[in-house]
Each structure stands twice: as structure tokens, then as C-alpha cells.
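Same chain as my last thread, 370 residues:
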Amino acid sequence: MQRNGKQRGRKTPFIFVLGGGTMTGLAILALLASTLRTVAATGGTAAADTIASRITDIAILTGVLVFLLAGTCLYCLRQAFAGGKRLQDIFRHADKPLPASKPPHDTSDSARAERQQLDAEIRCGLINGEFDVAYQPICNAATHAVEAVEALVRWPRRPDGELGPDAFIGAADSSGIIHRLGLFVLQRACSDMADLDTVRLHVNISPVQFRHSDFESQVQSILDETGFPAHRLELEITERHILENPERARAVITSLSARGIGFSLDDFGAGISGIGHLQRFGLRRVKIDRALVATIGRDPKAGALLTGAVNIAHALSLSVVAEGVETEDQEKLLRLIGCDLLQGYRFGRPAYFGDISDRLSRTEKAVQAM
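reply #2:
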């Protein structure tokens, strides 16, 4: 409740709210305190009766709500006295905090056990070769030619059945095993794509990887081992990477950019994306968030937001990728807005390298023939 434009703190007695005013509330508290001091030494049912008579007088002043509240309190006091407790004991125990509520043990223990089991399965899966990498095309908006692919982790050989990434990425991230899983994806993708000459490779990097002190050297080791050229690698990060530790982010981006590796800001337009990030961190590209793309054509504001985002990116000499493109209408609108590259089911679902290699080879030959 507010009074005189100021918010009352939690210490204000709740009886004040029911009484309707400061003076009434203070009077009620004074009467109750006086009554309780008088009967505290005696206890027993006589004390309850004395309290009852005084509370009745107070209730006449404060209305039905307090009367009902007083009746509830009186019932509780009578029950306590009937059980042989004295008023002093009731007050003494009243100051003890209530035990914190806890979820049922079986529920929390079960959830914890499931997380630990999934974490153990991921670790074993990495050792046993159960994971694989799928690739989704990123196409030129004007020509539909495949200019890049995004590497996406999959778990097809899990003994208990395949799990989609939404079911295990979160667990891997919270346990820290995402670092090893991410390095696996990077190594496999660089190895698969090494023999191609023009198609770029986009790989998502988790914040856990980004914070790792050896991340830069691990990336370089993978490039050296697979022979994949640094200028064809593009690492996708989100604002979380930058905001959690800007100095670390700047150091990583600067170090790897100097070796020719590019960086894209993923999910652009999904949160608090700022122009400052695009200016300060030497990014090469932005990817428009799929949730924003999904609303284009249905929400007039979405078109304006997308147009603004594309214009900002182009003003800073950044290329723009729109992901989550599924329909012809979306493609046309995004091309009109000025998106450079498009990614989504309209241009191909994620596929394993053996299934997409022919398409990539044809792209290579077409580029070389130009």
C-alpha cells in the first residue's frame, strides 16, 4: 500500500493494512502489546479468555477483516493452550524461522541423477565415436549458390537411441563437457571440409570454450592437424560471449582474426544487440535471429526491424545472413531487404558430409569455371 506517494517497507505491520490508517494500526498494536504483557505470566485458558475479550473490543474498531483474523489467531491460541503449552513457550518458539521449503527428495534426486547420467553418456559417447556432424548450406541470396555450411553436432549412434541437440546441448554446457564436444565438432568439420577450396565453414563456439585459456592454441592445433585454411573458417558467437568478459572476448577475437579466422555474431536482433559490439570487436558478419525471420510477412514491425538491422550491418561493412528461412515469401522479402546470405530448410536441411559432399563439389566446380 502507498501513502503520501511513498512505498511502505516490509516492516509495516500487516494489521495496518486492514485497519485503514497509521494511527489505528499503532493503537491496535499498543492494545495487543499491553494485553499480552498482562497475561504472559499466567498462561492457561484464562489468558486466552482475557485476550479474546480485548481482541473483541479491538475488532469493533477495525472492522470485519481484523475480526476474522483475530478469530483465527484466538483459535490457534486455544489449541496451543489445550495442548499444555504456556504463552511464554509460544512466544519463544515464534521467533524461530520456518524451515525452508524443499522440493520432494525423490524429484530433485531423480533430476540430478538424470543430469549426471546424461553427462556420463556424453563423455562415453565422445570416447566411443557416437557423435557426428551435419552441415546446413548457407546460400547466396541472389544466386542460391552454396557459399558456406554451418556445422551442427548430432548424436546418431547413442546406444539408447538418438537424441536431438536440444536435449543434450544444455546438459553439456552446464557440466563443462561442451568444451570437448565443441572441439570434436571443430576437428571433424575441418577434416571433412579440408579438400574443398572455396566453401567456408561456420562453427558455433560455446562461451565455455571461449573462456578456456587454451582455446586459441587448440583452434590453431586443429587447423594444423587437418590442413584446413584459416581464412575459410568462421566462428559463430553470441552477445553472451562478449558481455560476460569483454576483455577476454577482444583478446580471443584479435588473436584468431590475425590468423585469418572470421567471426560472426549469431542471433542478431534477438536480444540487446548493440552497434558498439559490431564496431569494437572486429566481426565479419551478423546472423539475423530465426525468431525474427519467422515473423516477417506476418508482423509489419518485423520488416522494419530487419531493414534497420541490415542497414546498420551494411553501414559497418558487415555481411548479413538470415537463418531459419523456410518459405519462398520469406526468401523474397529478405532478398528485397538486402540480406546477403540465406540459411534454412528452403535451401537444405542439415545433412551428413557423405550426403552433401556432391552438392558442395558441384558448387566448387561452378565457382572454378567462372
